[in-house]
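Ticket closed. Logging final result for LYR motif-containing protein At3g19508-like.
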Amino acid sequence: MKKVLRVYGGVLRLVRLLPADTRPYYAKYARENFVNYREVDQSETSLEELFQRAYNHSLWVLKKYSIDESAGKRLKEICFE
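Final structure:
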């Protein structure tokens, strides 16, 4: 559970880098996804897959707003440690 919270915190740190008018949307999106992760059937989807999905989506959003992908380096370290 601790790692899940660290990944969530990492995603929220990346949200702060986004343009001000988009932050509330992506913060809410991240919160809803992490709440939904609690309801995922562990036998079908592993936490590692969910961390991979969170990391990939975060990179996609950074690219969308032309933010350097290196900003996601910390999240990558958390997700794949």
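The mean pLDDT is 86. No further action required.
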